[in-house]
Amino acid sequence: MSTADIPPAPTAQAKYQVRFDWGVAGAARIAPGADVVVWVDVLGPGLQHTGGHEPSGILDLLPTGIPVLGAGFTTASATARWITDLQHRLGRRAMIAILAAGEPESGQGLTAGVRFAVEDQLAAGAVIDALATLGTDYCSPEAAASCAAFTGLRGAVAHLLTASASAQQLVAAGVAPALIRAAGALDTEEQARLLRG
To answer: For the segment 17-32, what is each residue's pLDDT rounded down to a tens digit?
Structure first.
């Protein structure tokens, strides 16, 4: 039996167009075979750029040869439009790997496990919901659950973001609460954030 005959692991979510997982380890599971990777990090490094940021070195850990977008609440619809345009250019369904960054375990770097970060879960759901609005809705159960979390809690996003453990850590470290609130504003940016083309 050749490697071509071996089906992908169920954790790859390979039969779904829209896939969802967490962190760099999740990228190793769901990014192979994807046409685009979306890295969702709402309160990560570079908070002044609220549309999703690239933590130092993350691009080196993601698959090469495919576009990587940074996303958050502020760019959810712009990200979905960019992916829809990619589909038109490809002339087929684009396979999409959406990764919530989460919070790296203390002092262990990007390749360590991640702590659940509600803001990244909900922002990933916002991107998935925006994709569904544009007709891209063949989601893995993991992606569907992230989307449902966002749509069900949409009215509470501002509170959940500012009350989250990640936000409270930032406030304790001296980050202005206004920057955190701005990161939770939905669709305030018109352009997707291309981290790597």
So the answer is: 999 999 988 998 999 9
